[in-house]
Amino acid sequence: MSLSVTALPRARNYEALPIAIFLVLALAPLAASFGAETYLLGLFTRVMIYGIAALALDFICGYGGLVSFGHAAFVGIGAYTAGIFSAHGITDMAITLPVALIVSALFAWLTGTVCLRTKSVYFIMITLAFGQMIYFVAGSLSPYGGDDGMTLKLRSTLFGFPVLQNDRALYYAVLAFLLVSYLLLRAIVSSRFGRVFRGARDNPTRMATIGYDVFRYQRVAYVIAGCLGGLAGFLLANATEFVSPSFMSWQRSGELIIMVLFGGIGTLHGAIVGAAAFLLLEDMLGGITENWKLIFGPMLVLIVLFARGGLLGLAQSVWERLRRG
Amino acid sequence: MAEPVPNPVLRIENLRKNFGGLVVTDGVSLDIKAGELHAVIGPNGAGKTTLINQISGTLEPSAGAIYLNGEDITALPPNKRAELGLARSFQITSVLPRFSALENVALAVQARSGSSYQFIGRADRESALNDAAMEALTEVSLDARADVLAAHLSHGEKRALELAIALAMQPKLLLLDEPMAGTGPEESERLIVVLQKLKGRFAMMLVEHDMNAVFALADRISVLTYGRILASGPPAQVRADPAVMTAYLGEELE
Ligand SMILES: Nc1ncnc2c1ncn2[C@@H]1O[C@H](COP(=O)(O)OP(=O)(O)O)[C@@H](O)[C@H]1O
Ligand SMILES: [Mg+2]
Q1: Ligand 1 centre and the CA of B50: distance in Å?
Q2: Is B85 helix (H, G, I), strand (E, B) or coil?
Q3: How many domains are there within chain B?
Q4: Residue A122 lies in a domain
Q5: Which of B18, B19, B28, B90 to mutate to test ligand 1, by most ligand atoms within 8 A of the CB atom?
Q6: What's the rounded Cα separation, in Å, for the pair A140 and A151?
Q7: Is residue B3 scored above 70 in pLDDT?
Q8: Which of A159, A168, A208, B41 is the S-S candidate for B78 at Cβ 3.0 to 4.6 Å?
């Protein structure tokens, strides 16, 4: 891993790239209106939703060194909160969204208290274990579809208005959530809190001996990441109008890690690029052949192995080589 | 043995640590007064680092007690001990490699200046933190290298950075574990000058193999062998102690 991963404004394109990413996302629906609009809007909505979840994972993983293999659990919790409320006829997001965030935060707090006592591989294994636990819990909720999951009768409303019913409205709402999540995490990473969190990744013993209770800082960061995972899940339930235990399977957690590595770990905007690249490739290759995973798998391995900084790192080194001629 | 001093900054009582059957700290008791520099010397494997680890809280003793300014800190975690004014350096350099020298020190300043649960506002632009950090860097003559990533500093510079981090904590007690280890003669000389300047400001425990440094700086010396204090007293007395001569110092003092 490159040493400058968290040295903050390092590349000149540090500002340009995120701005470009959000511009593209803001304009994408216009382009989509010339083509298969519903399909493209849906695809990009999912890209942004997974972008939020991947951002959160990049925050704890890329800046805090906490490699969670159970991050999809939070996506599932957010989705199921929306789904279960909806099954009881409650769709107003003034109620359901805060509840989704609170439940995610509680789950993060409780599991974080256990997970964060462990390190490295043990941390990976125990986050995976908690992820699987919540996966099986969801599968056993027979009133809510059990293993098959359930469809939502209605997307979330706001103070009674069906604000997300239109696909475009949903798209822009998700974009707004993505932007806020991104800006929030960016602020946190360079704040006092973020500096302690990053320091704890570099050298927890040193941080403890200068006076920081590393565990507490990490737990707060884990809760922040959990909340954003829950937000992503809440939005996913709205976008797909469906929830199922598969949202929180370990494969999903693995995919989130791949998205983070894919885009370039420890950059935040890289997580959005990674989510886009992952879902678009999956979509394209899936259209070509049924065995798309046979192509996709080796591609992922190559990118992660040879482009240490992910796609962004790859693009940057190609760009620098071109400029030097 | 040392006669008890009133109100020591550090008091260790009958400290004991064993790793399985291996006794590494064997009933160590010692006091360090305010402003005193207490050197601990002894051959490799004598248990000096283990002793420092127990005082700073990164290692739990098997028995005994540790008091900092009269408060029993034996059961406190390292961060609480740091809050009470205990700072340390590490024998094996322990800094934050991905942070600049300035930020390494600024983090130590930040720990003592209000809450770190602040989620907005760039910490690296807080001039109060940076100014205090710069002051500590200047004391160890590292100010010119403030913006260099710690990973890219030379070994000697990293040793100096360790010291700056500890200084920025405004400690009441500073534990130094072989601060000169692996540095060249000029760098050692410079560190001795820095420590000379710091002497008296706070209590210090200095673990060091460099006998020039030890005899130039120490008010008291304890000799540790096999986890036991073999002798303890002013430098002249320890130098003349026949048991010390045979057990450890030997030819180094001729
Ligand atoms: N974590 C540990 N587990 C087992 N033995 C240890 C451990 N740490 C140190 N030791 C042993 O304790 C003894 C003292 O080590 P140390 O305190 O590092 O000595 P010094 O700093 O005086 O050279 C050595 O024999 C060392 O091998
Ligand atoms: Mg040692």
Answers
A1: 6
A2: coil
A3: 2
A4: yes
A5: B19
A6: 16
A7: no
A8: A208
| Strand B228-233 with B220-225, pairing | antiparallel
Is residue B183 located within the same domain as residue B75?
yes
Give the residue carrying structure tokens 């003559």.
Answer: B141
The CATH number covering residue B57 comes to 3.40.50.300
- Residue pair B95/B40 in contact (Cβ under 8 Å)? The answer is no
Residues B194, B149 share a domain: no
Which residue range(s) make up the domain with A50? 11-291
Question: Stretch B51-60: mean pLDDT, rounded?
Answer: 96
Sign of CA dihedral A121, A124, A127, A130: negative
**Tokens of residue B244, six digits:** 């010390």
Nearest Cα to Cα of residue B126 among B144, B106, B99: B106
Rounded to whole angstroms, the Cα distance separating A140 from A134 reads: 10
Same domain, B81 and B160: no
**Of all protein residues, whose CA lies closest to atom 13 belonging to ligand 1?**
B45
The ligand 1 atom nearest the CA atom of B51: 17
ipTM above 0.90, yes or no: yes
The string over B210-222, giving b where at least 16 C-beta atoms fall within 10 Å of a residue's C-beta and e elsewhere, is beebbbebbbbbb
The ligand 1 atom nearest the CA atom of B44: 23
Burial of B133 (0-12, 13-18, 19+ CB in 10 A): buried
Tell me if B45 is assigned to some domain: yes
3-class state of residue A300 by DSSP:
helix
CB contact under 8 A, B115 and A8: no
Residue B224: φ, ψ to 5°: -110, 125
The span from the CA of B213 to the CA of B65, in Å, is: 29
pLDDT of residue B38 exceeding 50, the answer is yes
Of A3, A205, A213, the CB nearest to B97: A3
Half-sphere exposure of A49 (CA within 13 A, CB side): 28
Residues 176-235 of A with CB under 8 A from B: 187-188, 190-196, 198-199, 202-203, 205-214, 217, 220
Residue B14 structural domain: 1-85+171-254
Give the residue, out of B24, B51, B53, B90, with the most ligand 1 atoms within 8 A of its beta carbon, to mutate for a pocket test. B24
Phi, psi (5° rounding) for residue B85? Answer: 105, 20
Structure tokens at A23: 């511009």
Q: Where is pLDDT greater, at A231 or A300?
A: A231
DSSP B245: I
- The answer to whether the beta carbons of residues B102 and A173 sit under 8 Å apart is no
CA dihedral A27, A31, A32, A33 (to 10 degrees): 110
Tell me the pLDDT tens digit for each residue of A96-152. Answer: 999 999 999 999 999 999 999 998 889 999 999 999 999 999 989 988 988 888 988
Tokens of A205: 């013993």
What atom in ligand 1 is closest to the CA of residue B227?
Answer: 14
Q: Is the pTM of this model over 0.80?
A: yes
Is residue A158 helix, strand or coil? Answer: strand
A182 within 8 A of A268, measured Cβ to Cβ: yes
